[in-house]
Amino acid sequence: MFISKHEVEVRYAETDQMGVVYHANYLIWMDLGRTKLIKELGFSYKKLEEDGVLCPVLEASVKYKKPFRFGETATIHTWINEYNGIRIVYGYKIFTPNNEVGIEGTTSHVCVKNDSFKPINFKKHYPHWHEEYMKAMNK
After folding, report:
1. By its UniProt entry, which Pfam families does this protein fall under (predicted)?
2. How much is the pTM?
């Protein structure tokens, strides 16, 4: 399985009154990881949007295991957890500077036409992406 890695330095603005990263900011980090994974596979969200296709999040799950604090470096690991040609589930683990799992999560997506929000068959409309996603999952 192909795993993309992306480092993020925790910024002060991402922390809350308790001095740890505010819980919703991890979704932004997951988005950074997903975007990097797609780029490393040779594709871009921008190109999809130019084609009139969007890939909204249908579901997000986050398990908070260890907090991150200002000045620390978080390492986001992202991979394709599930893919069937239509629905895509990305997996994430965000590691602390001590290489401990701080966050685990998934996001589920379906690509849709921008004008109607009707789902598209990703396998049919983007066969090259489909092939690379299958390779990235080692299938």
Report:
1. 4HBT_2 (PF13279)
2. 0.94
By residue range, what is the domain housing residue 118? 4-136
Q: What is the DSSP letter of 24?
A: T
Place of tokens 């996001």: 107
Give the burial class of 74: count Cβ atoms within 10 A of its Cβ; 0-12 exposed, 13-18 middle, 19 or more buried: buried
Q: What are phi and psi of 67, to 5 degrees?
A: -80, 155
**How does pLDDT run across 54-77, given as a tens digit for each residue?**
999 999 999 999 999 999 999 999
3-state helix, strand, coil in the chain (%, to 5): 30, 40, 35
**Number of domains composing the chain:** 1
CATH of the domain at 107: 3.10.129.10
Q: Could you tell me if 76 and 94 are in contact, meaning their C-beta atoms sit under 8 angstroms apart?
A: yes
pLDDT higher than threshold 90 for residue 139: no
> What do you get for the CA distance between the two ends of the chain, in Å?
9
- The residue from 16, 31, 51, 115 that is catalytic is 16
pLDDT tens string 7-36: 999 999 999 999 999 999 999 999 999 999
Active site residue 16: yes
